[in-house]
Specification:
Mean pLDDT: 89
CATH architecture: Orthogonal Bundle
Distance between the termini: 74 Å
Number of strands: 0
CATH topology: Tetracycline Repressor, domain 2
Low-confidence stretches: none
Strand content: under 5%
Largest sheet: none
Structural class: mainly alpha
Shape: elongated
Number of helices: 9
CATH class: Mainly Alpha
Order of helices and strands: HHHHHHHHH
Length: 184
């Protein structure tokens, strides 16, 4: 009698393993056949779980972001003050920097290939989840403040991706603090 397969667990496994392949090869270069080979499964097995490359990609991005946001939320509750939580967030981002850079890079590549409203909508939804996390844990009254924080952090992450001599996230925040205190 064949062993029972936990299809949800197997699907999550395939999605987790797919990230490194998309990150290494890029969205455009990946094919279902190439993904299946790299994952060590048949193309038929991959199609059993997903309708195609886009379905794998979108599900993978959603799963990874869900895991990152859940992990960040769990860590952010350890900070007592908003300042403590900001430090926790920065440490979290620093530890996950390579993964976040790869995520941003392949999400932008996907968006370049699929600039349609549907792809923009699910990418915007993921961004809103991060903004909500920032707003709730960093005590921003106005959602636009959390969006500005998101822009600053994504900018810093992308800058580090593009320029090895860029300043790290902690230095960005220190500069912002100095700029704000100079305005007072």
């Amino acid at each position: 009698m064949p062993a029972k397969v936990d299809h949800d667990a197997r699907r999550k496994e395939l999605l987790s393993a797919s990230f490194s392949i998309f990150a290494r090869d890029g969205y455009a270069a990946c094919t279902m056949r190439g993904l299946a080979k790299a994952l060590g499964v048949s193309t038929g097995t991959l199609y059993h779980y997903f309708d195609g490359k886009d379905a794998v990609f979108v599900a993978m991005i959603r799963q990874l972001n869900g895991e990152l946001i859940a992990s960040a939320n769990a860590e952010l509750v350890t900070g007592v003050t908003p300042e403590d939580r900001l430090q926790v967030l920065l440490a979290f981002l620093a530890r996950h920097l390579d993964q976040l850079q790869a995520l941003i890079r392949i999400a932008l590549e996907y968006h370049r290939h699929h600039g349609d409203p549907a792809s923009r909508a699910w990418l915007a939804d993921i961004t809103r989840q991060y903004v909500h996390t920032f707003q709730s844990h960093l005590s921003f009254e106005d959602p636009s403040e959390a969006r500005v924080m998101m822009s600053l952090l994504v900018g810093a992450i992308v800058h580090q991706l593009l320029d090895a001599e860029s300043v790290d996230l902690f230095e960005h925040v220190a500069w912002i603090r100095r700029a704000l205190s100079d305005e007072s």
